[in-house]
Design goal:
The protein is an alpha+beta fold and 737 residues long. It is built from 13 helices and 38 strands. Helix 2 packs across helix 13 and helix 6 runs parallel beside helix 13. The longest helix is centred in the last third of the chain and has 20 residues.
């Protein structure tokens, strides 16, 4: 279990003005020659962020903006859904997403395995549970607790499940989070599991970003961005209140307050093995700097003596366990702890004294290691440890003030995902998968150090003749950048293999091997190669790998991806005619930069739910929260750097660009759809080839149900097939005459 301050993040277009009434004349753009030696002849479109001629596209539900979106969607559908192959791709993708033989992943607590399930019949989904004994069978007997389809129909809402927070140890009282259409803003409503009903007169919050935490059966800690006074400039809550049953939310008592300039303030509950409960809060000063608070019931909040760059993970038999993302010397002249370390101290001792107890080292990752999922069982603290992007699992024990560990054997050369752990049991769930190996769900016994497979996904595509390689290539500073290649074993290295390169490169997110039925059927079976680049900015090798590309150092992230692309070409796997690049969210910014900086490398660029306007990103929705990653556009130095990389501000009016496919979601209240809208509109005016699709629901995932996921995949792979596989690709879509 993690209580990271940046947990809300995690995890990433339309151009037919015939449908738009917005005038384009005298729009405020100017074209400035770029006469530097490296870019001689470029005509960069200059856009004033304070007088953006496309600001009207930032009106998410604006009439003109939505009319433009509708026209762009029609244009894109005509091209992609008009392709004879689209329907087959959609049908295959939908069959995969709706298949009944998917693993019903679950969380084990309160004596039950809990699961949320969507299929062809239950499009909104079922929240359900079963016993562990039943779960271990091939056909579990599920007890439906809440039918979201029935609820959506009765209330006239497009409810999207966002989870349930149930009060231990009975787990009968739950706060259920529901989003209308998939946005991050959501409502939270008290639900009785035993009654199978929402509690009449129970706790219920208005729609907002934020969260709630149980204190006891009649008390919540609540942080909601419902008013300017309670909201940060990033759009998240800045205050936590104690809310008693039977009182109005407006009368709740303030517990702890952050600053408007913070990213946000979030409360959480930590439960120890002796049933001791600690209420806490993370005050995210920036995306990576956090003040941690202990919130005693009968005293003022106490700031915890943790470094700013740290993340509380869990508690194990009294030891509060946390990671540090910076070197730390708690006491001047005392012991120092290295960046990336996993540490602990006695939480009860701290709660009693308010002073930092002795700090213990749990584990220090090596240079090519990183820490993944972790959680407590009755007998061990389990930690997923990746070695060169390959998963492993360790069981840690704390005895006589010293941590020790034992290795739990797991499948070799797989991505390991530690799932639900239970502090009163010896078991945990774990998944294992690879590019060509379907997911297997196993039960880990932390006492016996065993892993028992219990469920697996059948093969979704024919992997015969396919191989996986892990390669590496040098970036501009000599650092070796690893990447995975999935291809046919008999691939001729003559530059003709259609190749899709995927990367993310930000927010310490690791991109590890994963199994995808739609990718396998719609791309690999048709002869395509798939590449994942583990570039800097990610978390594949710990905090240092991430921090190497922060703010004004970000160009190295883009250099890393360019180096991988050039290596793919130099080794003969592919060529610019057959190479495409794909990324979403921060990865959409990454591919946007690839589009403007190295258009010569690609024949297709896909930028999904992207950031593209890096001079206004901080004033659009949650963008202000990411200045710790990207920098401040209003700072002279950081702003100048952001202008140099911002895709929206680096389009060459005379440039020779590959076709770019931009897609986003109207309901995305994390990354503003205006980024993709404005970029597409600019390309339309310049006559550069593009496609744009905007889903009108779905939030940051750009999909709210399984059918929308299938449509998203079918549109994507139809586009990539046209651009990278077809011998005579379709005429690129430019602005209508």
């Amino acid at each position: 279990m993690r209580y990271m301050a940046n947990k809300w993040m995690a995890t990433a277009g339309a151009l037919l003005l015939a449908a738009c009434t917005q005038p384009a004349a005298n729009n405020g753009d100017s074209v400035t020659p770029d006469n530097s030696a490296a870019t001689s002849g470029r005509q960069i479109v200059q856009i004033d962020p304070n007088n953006d001629p496309r600001a009207w596209l930032e009106e998410v539900e604006g009439e003109d903006a939505l009319a433009w979106v509708e026209g762009q969607n029609e244009r894109t559908f005509d091209r992609l859904q008009g392709d004879a192959r689209y329907q087959g791709m959609f049908d295959r993708a939908l069959a995969i997403y709706q298949s009944e033989d998917r693993i019903p992943g679950g969380a084990f607590y309160g004596g039950f395995v809990w699961n949320f399930w969507q299929d062809a019949t239950n499009t909104h989904g079922l929240w359900r549970r079963t016993t562990m004994d039943s779960y271990l069978t091939d056909t579990p007997e599920w007890d439906v607790v809440l039918d979201l389809d029935a609820l959506s129909e009765s209330e006239g809402k497009n409810w999207v499940w966002r989870g349930a927070n149930c009060l231990a140890p009975a787990y009968d009282q739950c706060m259920i989070t529901l989003s209308d259409g998939g946005s991050d803003a959501a409502v939270r409503r008290e639900f009785s599991v035993s009654d199978r009903a929402f509690v009449e007169g129970g706790f219920e919050t208005p729609q907002a970003k934020g969260g709630v935490s149980w204190v006891d059966a009649d008390t919540l800690l609540v942080g909601l961005a419902t008013s300017e006074a309670d909201t940060t400039e990033s759009g998240y809550p800045s205050v936590a209140y104690r809310w008693q049953r039977g009182t109005a939310l407006a009368d709740a008592t303030e517990v702890v307050r952050g600053d408007r300039e913070d990213v946000g303030l979030f409360t959480f509950r930590v439960e120890d093995f002796d049933d001791a409960v600690y209420m806490m809060a993370s005050q995210a000063v920036t995306f990576y700097d956090t003040n941690w608070w202990y919130l005693p019931a009968d005293a003022a909040p106490v700031q915890m003596p943790l470094p700013a760059k740290s993340s509380i993970q869990d508690i194990f038999h009294g030891q509060l366990i946390f990671t540090i993302e910076e070197d730390w010397t708690p006491v001047e002249g005392g012991t120092s702890f290295a960046q990336g370390s996993l540490l602990s101290f006695d939480m009860a001792a701290f709660a009693a004294s308010g002073q930092l107890p002795e700090v213990h080292t749990v584990y220090v990752p090596r240079e090519r290691q990183s820490l993944g999922g972790m959680g407590s069982t009755r007998t061990a603290f389990l930690v997923e440890i990746d070695e060169n992007v390959v998963g492993g699992l360790e069981a840690f024990h704390f005895n006589d003030g010293v941590w020790s560990s034992e290795t739990i054997p797991v499948p070799a050369n797989m991505t390991i995902g530690l799932g639900s752990t239970q502090r009163h049991e010896d078991i945990a769930f774990m998944t294992a998968e690879g590019f060509l190996t379907p997911d297997t769900l196993s039960v880990v016994n932390s006492a016996e150090l065993t892993v028992e497979p219990i469920k697996s996904v059948p093969a979704r595509f024919n992997a015969d003749g396919l191989v996986v390689e892990q390669r590496e290539t040098a970036s501009t500073d000599g650092t070796m950048i690893p990447y995975f290649v999935v291809r046919r074993a008999d691939t001729v290295m003559d530059g003709t293999t259609p190749t899709l390169l995927y990367a993310y490169g930000g927010f310490q997110v690791s991109i590890r091997p994963s199994y995808s039925g739609s990718r396998g059927q719609l791309w690999l079976e048709n002869g395509g190669a798939y590449v994942v680049a583990n570039i800097r900015g990610g978390g594949e090798f710990g905090p240092a790998w991430h921090q190497a590309g922060l703010k004004m150092h970000r160009q190295i992230i883009y250099d890393d991806l360019i180096a991988v692309a050039e290596n793919l070409i130099d080794t003969g796997l592919t060529s610019p005619r057959h190479l495409g690049v794909y990324g979403g969210s921060n990865g959409g910014l990454l591919t946007g930069v690839m589009y403007t900086q190295r258009p010569d490398l690609w024949n297709a660029v896909v930028s999904a739910v992207p950031l593209l306007d890096m001079l206004r990103y901080n004033v659009l929705l949650a963008g202000n929260s990411w200045m710790g990653e990207y920098g401040d556009p209003d700072d002279p130095d950081e702003g100048a750097f952001l202008r140099s990389i911002s895709p929206y501000h680096n389009v060459d009016a005379n440039g020779d660009y590959p076709e770019i496919y931009l897609y986003t979601s109207t309901k995305d209240d994390r990354v503003h759809p205006g980024h993709a809208r404005k970029m597409a509109h600019l390309l339309e005016e310049l006559g550069h080839p593009y496609l744009y699709y905007e889903n009108t629901a779905g939030g940051h995932a750009a999909a709210a149900n399984l059918e929308e996921y299938a449509r998203r995949d079918a549109l994507l792979y139809t586009f990539l097939t046209q651009k990278l596989m077809d011998p005579d690709e379709p005429a690129a879509e430019t602005a209508p005459e």
